[in-house]
């Protein structure tokens, strides 16, 4: 790593410019899809991701660089990954089973890592009930007790058209860090069929409330269904609540995607924000037209007894598809973040990825394009049933699948501060802003400019495409508020041609831009 001394020119200016967020390709091996990403509550620089069919990725630098491996277990690894982490920094990888002795999908498996994803236990299991099939697992952890809660769909027989065969939502808990699990119980009141479509109960997604309440929603023939437990899952209500309709159903067609769904994501605000205790459910459907899939949000401020009318999250004009959304809450701020695929900019199958943010409890939303380039999916390649997003202390990590030349890759956008997702009237509160370098692409010389809205210690670094620092341009230099322009002699710095990211950091803010060196 090089250290470069540069001169600074101070220019008073009020311009603020935002552009593309850095995209990091985590992997293009083994056709990764259906990602699940999680920060460590104990060490937030650590992230772990699971992806089909048995991929595991871990990062020690907030997601800038990644290590990859494959998960192994004598219980078998058969996909539908879900990653959660407890307050001690232990990660848990839930997935479907393919045991050496037993039948496919005969149980739900939980493997544990005590070293931030580097190694994993052989796994414990719950829900063993062969020959019935256990599918579509999702889990949550109560960070106060570290109790683990798992929810999934049990098929009497997957794909069966026999009327006596049904699907139900099952629940199991572990009070000993995943070593043992309670007997699985049914929590839904209206069963579904086994067709794996609108009339199947599926997509159970839990969240934990401020006092350890367990909230969960799923989709099925009765619509979007919600229930809760206030005693750690020991008891559940006699009746479920219909939170909303999914129209015409949760299973729908998107051109270029082999299959697509609008299954729900449940979150609860346990931050100290004004929206503390609010429960949110996010999903997508085609109520507006089969050519106009949209992302929706409802919320409850009375513990799930009543629900608001659906609000449309995507802010484009009608007539384009938005699909496969995921949602999270930054529990340091109470801000809501959504990631989804978006075709608002095209009339063909070109697809972007967008981030939406709500800073007012799901009343209003701002949308931002976060993918660097559009891509065109192909229905001959399975694209997965979900995306993923995590947020921690103003760091947001939306994750999705990309496709180039018929090859799937797993991509994450690096959003290191929520500052650049401010509404215009709040932008003066941002510590700093960073402009695009000029010229870009550059070959021998380039200029970078940034603005400080208040005095700060500034670090400016250049990273390669993997996130490794190749040049430290400025190191914790104290600067007054103002506009700065930096000139860099790329020839003397001996920077190889390629794609790079330059990053500005202060004590409480960071932002990156992409640049190309020829």
Topology:
Elements: E1 2-3, E2 9-11, E3 23-27, E4 33-39, E5 47-52, E6 55-59, E7 67-70, E8 82-85, E9 91-96, E10 108-113, E11 124-126, E12 133-141, E13 148-155, E14 167-174, E15 185-186, E16 202-208, E17 214-220, E18 223-229, E19 241-244, E20 251-252, E21 260-261, E22 265-268, E23 279-285, E24 294-300, E25 311-312, E26 322-330, E27 335-342, E28 352-358, E29 366-369, E30 388-392, E31 395-404, E32 407-413, E33 432-434, E34 445-452, E35 456-464, E36 469-479, E37 482-489, H1 490-493, E38 498-505, E39 510-517
Parallel strand pairs: 1-36
Antiparallel strand pairs: 2-37, 3-32, 4-5, 5-6, 6-7, 8-9, 9-10, 10-11, 12-13, 13-14, 14-15, 16-17, 17-18, 18-19, 20-21, 22-23, 23-24, 24-25, 26-27, 27-28, 28-29, 30-31, 31-32, 33-34, 34-37, 35-36, 35-38, 38-39
Overview of this protein structure:
This protein is mainly beta and 518 residues long. It folds into two domains: 2-17 and 427-517, Immunoglobulin-like (Sandwich); 23-413, Neuraminidase (6 Propeller), CATH 2.120.10. Helix content is 1%, strand content 45%. It contains one helix and 39 strands. The protein has one helix spanning 490-493, and strands at residues 2-3, 9-11, 23-27, 33-39, 47-52, 55-59, 67-70, 82-85, 91-96, 108-113, 124-126, 133-141, 148-155, 167-174, 185-186, 202-208, 214-220, 223-229, 241-244, 251-252, 260-261, 265-268, 279-285, 294-300, 311-312, 322-330, 335-342, 352-358, 366-369, 388-392, 395-404, 407-413, 432-434, 445-452, 456-464, 469-479, 482-489, 498-505, 510-517. The strands form ten sheets. The chain has a five-stranded mixed β-sheet, with no helix packed on it. The two termini are 20 Å apart. The model is unreliable at 1-19 and 423-429 (pLDDT under 50).
């Amino acid at each position: 790593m090089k250290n470069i001394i540069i001169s600074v020119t101070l220019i008073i200016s009020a311009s603020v410019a935002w552009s593309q967020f850095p995209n990091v390709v985590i992997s293009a091996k083994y056709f990764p899809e259906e990602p699940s990403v999680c920060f460590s509550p104990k060490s937030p620089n650590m992230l772990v991701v699971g992806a089909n069919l048995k991929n595991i990725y871990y990062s020690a630098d907030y997601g800038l660089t990644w290590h990859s491996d494959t998960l192994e277990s004598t219980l078998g690894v058969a996909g539908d990954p879900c990653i959660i982490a407890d307050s001690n920094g232990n990660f848990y990888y839930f997935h479907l089973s393919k045991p050496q002795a037993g039948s496919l999908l005969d149980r739900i498996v939980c493997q544990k890592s005590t070293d931030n994803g580097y190694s994993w236990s052989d796994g414990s299991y719950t829900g063993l009930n062969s020959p019935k099939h256990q599918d579509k697992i999702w889990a949550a952890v109560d960070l106060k007790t570290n109790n683990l809660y798992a929810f999934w769909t049990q098929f009497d027989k997957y794909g069966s058209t026999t009327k006596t065969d049904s699907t139900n939502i099952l629940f199991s808990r572990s009070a000993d860090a995943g070593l043992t699990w309670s007997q699985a119980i049914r929590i839904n009141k209206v069963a579904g069929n086994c067709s794996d479509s609108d009339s199947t109960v599926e997509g159970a997604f839990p969240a934990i409330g401020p006092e350890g309440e367990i909230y969960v929603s799923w989709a099925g023939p009765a619509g979007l269904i919600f229930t809760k437990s206030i005693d750690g899952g020991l008891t559940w209500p006699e009746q479920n609540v219909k939170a909303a309709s999914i129209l015409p159903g949760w299973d729908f067609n998107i051109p270029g995607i082999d299959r697509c769904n609008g299954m729900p994501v449940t979150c609860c605000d346990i931050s100290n924000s004004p929206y503390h205790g609010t429960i949110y459910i996010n999903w997508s459907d085609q109520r507006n037209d089969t050519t106009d899939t949209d992302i929706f949000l409802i919320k409850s401020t009375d513990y799930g007894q009543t629900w608001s009318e659906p609000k449309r999250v995507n802010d484009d004009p009608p007539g384009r598809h938005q699909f496969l959304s995921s949602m999270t809450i930054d529990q340091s701020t109470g801000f809501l973040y959504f990631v989804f695929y978006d075709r608002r900019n095209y009339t063909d199958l070109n697809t972007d990825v967008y981030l939406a943010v709500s800073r007012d409890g799901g009343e209003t939303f701002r949308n931002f394009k976060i993918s660097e380039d559009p891509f065109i999916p192909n229905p001959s390649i399975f694209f997965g049933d979900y995306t993923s997003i995590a947020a921690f202390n103003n760091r947001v990590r939306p994750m999705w699948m990309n496709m180039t030349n018929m090859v799937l890759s797993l991509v994450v956008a690096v959003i290191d501060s929520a500052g650049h997702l401010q509404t215009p009237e709040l932008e003066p509160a941002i510590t700093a802003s960073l402009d695009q370098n000029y010229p870009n692409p550059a070959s021998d010389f380039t200029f970078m400019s940034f603005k400080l809205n208040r005095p700060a210690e500034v670090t400016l670094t250049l990273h390669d495409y993997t996130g490794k620092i190749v040049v430290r341009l400025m190191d914790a230099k104290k600067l007054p508020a103002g506009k700065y322009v930096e000139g860099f002699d790329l020839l003397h710095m001996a920077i190889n041609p390629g794609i790079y990211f330059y990053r500005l950091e202060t004590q409480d803010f960071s932002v990156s831009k992409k640049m190309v060196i020829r």
